[in-house]
Amino acid sequence: MKVVMIRHGKTPGNLVKQYIGRTDQPLAEEGIDELKRIASSEEFKQALRPEKVEQIYVTPLKRTQETAEILFPCAKQTVINDLREMDFGIFEEKNYKDLENSKEYAAWLETHCESKVPDGEDKASFSKRSCDAFLDCLKECGDRPVYFLVHGGTIMSVMEAFAETRQEYYKWYAENGHGYVAEWDGTVLSHIQAV
To answer: Which of 99, 121, 156, 173 counts the most CB atoms within 10 A of its CB?
Structure first.
């Protein structure tokens, strides 16, 4: 089964390197322009055949839905709540400069960003939520190709858990508007290509 996972386009918060998890930001103008360039590229059209995509899984957050409208305009969007980005709690809409004097932020960094964010989530719980939702979507689709338009953290969680080529979470980082195409054999993602 073919699996495609694409990260949403840039939001205003992405442009200034903020932690944007539960915050429901729309796409930035720069993000929209970038996605339109991607959508019109021959490479994208050849790799993903967007006109043939009938269904795409998105999250409740505007940035994934708006991106899906641009990249896969013919696809019916199915909202899956548990595919949403990690909740960054008190770090939401702040960047590393804003947080440089925060004791809570320093403590979180010391755990390699795996501990629970105050008023937010921890990495293990977030990753389990993302992976469980991913598997549920695959079951629903049978043998059909499965398309996801989600968040960077969601993609990293799924790839860390299921990629045949084992790499840690952050090695699976995808730029906005990009992601991975892979084959799912029921247990692992193989033949992985960046798109």
So the answer is: 156
